[in-house]
Specification:
7 strands, 21% strand, single chain, Glutaredoxin, alpha/beta
């Protein structure tokens, strides 16, 4: 009975929390580096894709994630509006994925992101990723100015925090 009450209380607390609330990396921290793979399966470092001297938006996503799919139009709009001013990076998480599957999905859906694959979960661990659709926005100095999760994130407002 006590366990059921605790679970219910936890569920009520979660229902009241906004989907875009601060989560994951603390604001103001420096973006960590992490081991990832290119969509061709070659080893790479995530820091290679973080723009030096301009803001960077990083989305942790998956091909099977409905929240990520819902964010695609907002990501495309941001890519058009901030072309050359903001780097957009997509880190595909390793659950039920492969570099080839990620590559095909990104091409088929014309994702406006530089896509890398986090096969071993190193990036997810270092960025303290709570779920797919997790977005981190870094300012020009590589400091975290926004984190959020869910399909209702205001990508536009998040990027403005970094400009």
């Amino acid at each position: 009975m006590i366990r059921r009450i605790l679970i219910t209380a936890g569920a009520i607390a979660l229902l009241g929390a906004p989907l875009h609330a601060q989560t994951g990396l603390p604001l103001g921290t420096s973006a960590p580096d992490a081991r990832v793979l290119t969509v061709d399966g070659k080893p790479a470092q995530l820091a290679r894709y973080v723009a030096k001297g301009k803001p960077t938006l990083i989305e942790f996503w998956a091909t099977w994630c409905p929240n990520c799919k819902a964010l695609e139009p907002r990501m495309s709009a941001a890519a058009k509006k901030y072309a050359g001013k903001v780097a957009l990076v997509g880190v595909a998480v390793g659950v039920n994925q492969s570099a080839e599957l990620v590559r095909r999905y990104a091409a088929k859906h014309s994702l406006p992101l530089t896509v890398v694959y986090d096969r071993d979960g190193d990036a997810a661990d270092k960025y303290d990723v709570p779920a797919t659709s997790y977005i981190v926005v870094l300012d020009k100095a590589g400091k975290v100015v926004y984190t959020g999760v869910g399909s209702e994130q205001d990508i536009e407002a998040a990027i403005r925090k970094a400009l």
